[in-house]
Amino acid sequence: MTREATHRAIEAVWRIESAKVIAHVARIVRDVGLAEELAQDALVAALEHWPDEGLPNNPGAWLMATAKNRALDRLRQDALHARKHEELGHDLDALQAHVEPDFVDALAEASEDDIGDDLLRLIFTACHPLLSTDARVALTLRLIGGLTTDEIARAFLAPEKTIAQRIVRAKRTLTEARVPFEVPRAAELPQRLGSVLEVIYLVFNEGYSATAGDDWMRPALCAEALRLGRVVAELMPDESEALGLVALMEIQASRTNARVDAEGRPVLLMDQDRSCWAPLLIRRGFAALARAEALGGARGLYALQAALAACHARAHQAEQTDWAQIVALYDALAQVANSPVVELNRAVAVGMAFGPEAGLEIVDALAAEPALANYHWLPSVRGDLLAKLGRLEEARAEFERAAEMTRNARERELLTARAHAVANPTRAR
Amino acid sequence: MRFMIIVKATPDSEAGVMPEESLMAAMAGYHEELVKAGVLLDGAGLQPSAKGWRVRYRADRRSVIEGPFAETKELIAGYTLIQVRSREEAMEWARRFPAPMGEGVDAEIEVRQLYEMADFAPGEAVDRFRDLEANRR
Asked: Per-residue DSSP letters for A204-271?
């Protein structure tokens, strides 16, 4: 292996192992920031040794052992410092109470514990509600995804310095607040898990909104979010919402190849070439959703969205879509998490199931909704329903309004084209 | 990016000899690791070629040839489909694959990367390919 190839191999090992190593060390030192530093030390050691000695047979165990030794050294030093302080203060009682703490014994016992538990603790800590959403996302990708600061910055179109500071601050916040390194107790769990799943879905959506010409790290976020979701669902096999989120992401990811045309323009769900949807991902999504439902989680926020995605996936052609079922699912979703955006989506479904008139009624009721004041999908949906009702002039105005509102250049193109099409119905066909 | 780890057949796998308990355990353990890492997409062992068949295309004629097939080393006994972030990661996972026919038994795995849509430059050719796909259904 050339040096270059060895370095790339070490990087790959690091990506596979880093979260586990950081998680395990964090349980020893009880500080996520310090744990990452110590794990990084192990990586540096690997970069020193492996190019000459070759990769060890079990590189994960090597990294783990090295990082753990650094952690133990650190604890011994800290204990020594503490004792010196006490000697200076001539506090003999305290000194006697401190006789030779045997870290190795205590920790050997601890390490018997499941690595998965450590990883779960790390995930919950990185997604702690004490941190801002941005900080949670960055820290999760950094600590659990093993992404570099540069990669996160490229993925989120942010300067590297901004991301680096965000991560440093997040770690400091956790240290200063002495956030315990643990999986939340049952009472807290639903809310804390919600925070974890929210972060993962945010990462997914960030990748999903990538457009052609973007840095490749952006679409790569989808795959990373899916991976993180699968990891969490595997670590918490009884949590239906984790499975629901995985199902949702698998099915949405199945459409990746059909979502843009050859010029990189977005293609609406109803216009997508469904033969390009990835059947393996759809199957995986269905399986995850079935597991979520079997756990009694059919009415969960993510499970319902996954069920909606599954409804579309089951229709081999857009015309076969079971809109009545979709309306029913949106009704259920509105009960779990009602929002104007959900309502707008429900309007689309109602329009398809029961005719544009019924859909328009819901949309018009949303017109004064302040949360949708800058939401281009509102005029876009309204325009679509009006066009179906033959009110072409009003439809054109709505599409133009929507085109003005969107910040996405390709969506603007699409909406302007629709405005043109309804204004010139003969040329459109 | 996706990679397929392909396990090549051996005389034993072709004879339908079921793997020993220890090998099953090693395989289960490995695949559990893949699941925990969130990288496993799919995987299966294949039954011997004796239970399969081939369709041969000659000019405009096609004929069915029943298994088994002789060239054992060219046959496939199983596959594991993974999704990873780099070629090196796939390499690292492949390095960890258990000896597929049991420790100490000669065998071989082969790893191949799957084409993704993104591998094709956007353009007319991709559209034509998509049309082809659509027409086939």
From this structure: HHHHHT--TTS-THHHHHHHHHHHHHHHHHHHSTT-HHHHHHHHHHHHHHTTGGGSB-TTS-B--GGG
Q: What is the pLDDT of residue B73?
A: 84
Complex ipTM value? 0.82
Query: Which pLDDT tens digit goes with each residue over A282-310?
Result: 999 999 999 999 999 999 999 999 999 99
Q: Is the Cβ pair A11, B133 closer than 8 Å?
A: no
Cα separation of the two ends of chain A: 60
Q: Could B130 and A275 be called an inter-chain contact, meaning their C-beta atoms sit closer than 8 Å?
A: yes
Query: Span A346-429: which CATH code?
Result: 1.25.40
**Chain B: nearest CA to A394, how far in angstroms?**
34
Mutate to test the interface with A, among B36, B42, B81, B133 (most CBs of A within 10 A): B36
For residues B108 and B2, give the distance between their C-alpha atoms in angstroms, rounded to a whole number. Answer: 20
Across A45-55, b (16+ Cβ under 10 Å) vs e yields: bbeeebbeeeb
Every domain of chain A with CATH number 1.25.40 lies at 346-429
Determine contact, residues A12/A59, Cβ cutoff 8 Å: no
Hey, what are A387's tokens?
């066009």
